[in-house]
Each structure stands twice: as structure tokens, then as C-alpha cells.
Predict the structure of Murein L,D-transpeptidase YcbB/YkuD.
Amino acid sequence: MYQFSNSAIFGAVSLLALTAGSGAIAQVSVDSNVETPIAVAMPIWSELADIVQIDASMEVASFYADRNYAPLFMANDAEVARAVIDALASQHLHALPEWGDRLEPLSRHVAAAVDGYPTAEGEVAFAEAYIALAQARLTGVVVPTRLSDDMYVFPPEISAATALDALAEQAAPVRYLMDLAPDHPDYAPLLALRAELEQVVANGGWGAADVPSGASIRAGERDERVPAIRARLLALGDIEGPRAQRVMPVVTPVATTQPLDDTPLDATSVSNAVQPDPTYMDDATVAALMAFQTRHGLNDDGVIGPKTLAALNTTADERLRQVLVNLERVRWTDWDRNEKHIYVNLADYRMWLRENGEELFTTRTVIGSSRHQTVEFSDTMTHLVVNPTWTVPRSIATEEILPALRDNPNYLNERNMTLIDDGTGVWTPSDTSLINWANFSESFFPWWIRQGPGPGNSLGNVKFMFPNQFAIYLHDTPSRSLFARDARAFSHGCVRVADPTGLAEVLLQPQSSDPLGLFQRHRATGRETTVNLQERPAVHIDYRTVWIDESGQVQYRDDVYGRDALVLNAMQDLGVQTGQPQG
């Protein structure tokens, strides 16, 4: 069937043969006097040329034509093919579909190859399996835009030709397949966390049942739930084992002028006197709680309120599923992390400006409410607008401002707002308080509303523009109190920044020796002014609910928009196992 070179016949050698059914490797002896086809020999792959031209895609056919139909997977005792099988068998470790139906036919092809009868059909089957494997590992399996219009995310595209060329160029293709994963610093730590959480789940989770709800607990207070809270903090690692046993007793000093009584005390009395009150919220527990709150994006006030209690009661299984979703989200990411870019993590309510891996600036943010969710997408920031005017979106004008005008005809005058004729020719009086607003509705509102620059402007003193189809941008705000909250989803979709002056200063540094002065001079005019950026950073608005920070701490965030749940459901529909660990 195949022609082999003279090197196919040689002295006694051993071949690795795949034991039928078990996948185990066995040694097979070959007698030097028997002319047996050897898998490591190179046949003339005339049949491969016929098969790829008929059955394979154009990219696969072109790949093999360029290499004169030399095998990639079936060569050298099918070592690369066996590595593909190993990689497919470990798909669950990456929170990807296991594709078990592919393994049996592929194993038969390998068994034939190591017996000395590699087939062209097997070569093509492994090429197709590897392409699917590489695309899943590097770009994910879920299509974000199919889940929600607010997930305007496009995973990197890896063609069949690119995947095959990458493997063929490797000096160590087996190692390449073993390590196949996204080039992202978060990916390997998340894989390790997934393995750790699977073990926790297998061992029964983090201990006792949920801590009961109730009134907030503060430092120095007593509550029957404190022992359960302390046990949960110990299980989560926020209290170290030995330290957790050293809860300080409550000691109340009492002033006395009585002479010292040195009468020996009963041992039981001494023991009772120094026993700590387990219901007491002591300093060590408060410190551990604050560390826990920091890791979960909560205000580290040391108070056990509803949000902190909900985070404490999140099970290991729920955290595991969160990690699986975020592994998929990392696979969607192919940004250049060395370029200058603004990164907004919606779930963390925070933004960063980074370049070459260095953090140049960070601040808290307020994001869109659950009704007006901020979209995930990427774009490029081009300019700032200092002292911006605000043209009110039609939905806000008709759904929010119009009802307010019916109650208070002076609403616009009090907020430096004017009406702009939308072209219908309806009379626009200079004094809007004279209008009978009962005559207008959401379907009949013949104006735009514009708010002039000033201290009450809803966009504050500056907006940061990256023109996009969603009309989303970063901006200042006069509503400063919201930044103090730990959950900050209150806007109509744009991203408000807590320190807009600091962001403007660092963005203007490349084009001014006095960037802060430049910004303040524009502000002092009181006029709307556009300032183009000489260096235009990319903007990535992301949604990540689990990551490991630079200090090695696991960071968890709430699924504020429910988008993790959408991704998880899609992964399950595609065959990803998201429950108990695999055997």
C-alpha cells in the first residue's frame, strides 16, 4: 500500500504501541529479519494528496501541498498524534468540551500507525482534531455577541492554516501541544485556582452551612454568628490556621486600691477567667474580615453587612464555576498589553491606564445601572472635551426629564438646560417654564435638551472621548458621593471616573511639560474646548469577576450584570462540565 525507504528495514528496535481500549503504552519487539512497515519511516503520501483535495478544507489542502504531503501527525511513530489525544483528554482542565466521541476513532488511527500502518485518513482526522483543539484553547468556544448585545466582544480568529503552521514550526511539537494556552498572564493562575477549587469541592467545600442573616456586626460587638464567621474566614485562608486559634480574651481592667490578694486560686477558676468569648468580634477577626472584603471588592470597613455576608456565604462550587467562566473570558482577549491602554473592569468598578505592563493611573468608577448596562467593547481614545455641554439622550429626556417638568416647569432653568428645535418647527420659548408640559409625551417631544457647561453639568468638567456606536465615554460627574460605595452601578451607561483631573493630567503628559496647568487653563475659560490627544490609547471595557492580583491574592467580584451566568449556560450547552470534578 505504501512505499518505504530502505531505512524502514533495520535491526531490532522497539515501538510504542497503544494498548487497545486502555490507552496504555506497551513495548513491541520487532525482529530485524522481518520486513515490517515501520511508522517512523516516511511513506510517499500519494493517498494523502487525493484525500485532502477531496475531503479537507482549502486551508488544510494547501498546508499539506506546501509540505509535499509529508505527514505531521503520523510521522515518527505518531508522536504528535498521541500528543493531540493527550491534549484532548485534558480539555476539562481548561473548562472546555471534552469531545470524548473523537478519542476512540483517533486512538484506532494511532494504534494502526504504531503497528506500522499509518493511514492518510488518520493524518487528516488528526489535522482536523488539532485545529478544533487549538481554536478552542486559544480563542474559546462561546461566541459573546450571540449571548447579549452588551457583550460586543470578538475573540481572536485563528485560521486552520495559522494553527497548522504554528505546530509545524515547533522544534518540540509535543511540548507545544502540552502547553497550548492563551498568552495571557492571568490564564495559568486561573488554571491553578480551578484545580484547587475542584479539590475543595471534592472535599465538601468550605465547611458548615451558610452563616445566618441578621443585623450588621461591628468590631467590639457580640453575636452568636461570630464563631461561624470566624470558621469561614479560616477555611478561606483569611485567618491563618495557628493564628486563628489565638483569639485574644476580653479583658476589662478594673482600678483598685485594695491590697494584692496572693491566695492561690482554684485551677478551674483561672481557666474560666481567661477563656475568650467566642461571640465577641475581636480585633483579629476584624482584621481578617477586612482582608476578605478587600479581596472581594467590598469597602474594607470590618463590618459584616449584607454584601459581606453574601460573599462569605458563596460556596466553593459557585466560585469554581466563576473561575471556569473567567478562563473562557481570558481566551477571548488578544489585546496588546504592552501598548498604552485604558482598561475598565466593569465588575470591579475601576479603571487603569497602563503602558508596558506599568500602571500609570487608576481610579474608582461608576458604571451603568442594571437597566442601562455598560457595553463591553474596545476602541481608541482620541480627545478630551473640557467644560463639556451635554446633549441629553432622547430616552432620558422623555422618560426622566419630561415627568420632572410636569411636576416642576422650572426644572430646565434650574439646571442650565435649554431646548433645541429638532427640526419640526415647534415654537421654542426662551422661558421653558411657560410651556404646558402635559401636552407632550414620550412619542411627541419635538426638542432636544442641552445642558451648558458649569458646576452642575452632568458630565462634570471633562469627558474622555473614544467615539463609538454606543455613545459611551468616560467622564467627570458632580455626583461624588456614589464613589464611596462598594457597588457602583448607577449611570445611564457611560463610565464616570472618580479622579478625572488626574486622568486628564496623565493623558496630556506626552504633549505638555505642564499637563495639569494646561488642563486647568482650559477649565478656567468656562468654554467647551476640544483637546486632541497626540498619543491615543486603546480603551478596553471588560467584565472580569475573578483574577489573581500581583501579590498572588485571588480577587472575586459580583456578577453585577448577570453576564457570567449567560456565559456559564452557553458553556454547559456546548458540553463543558461545570459541576463536580472529573475522575
Notes: Residues 120-139 form the longest helix (20 residues). The chain has 19 helices and 18 strands. Residues 46-181 form one domain.
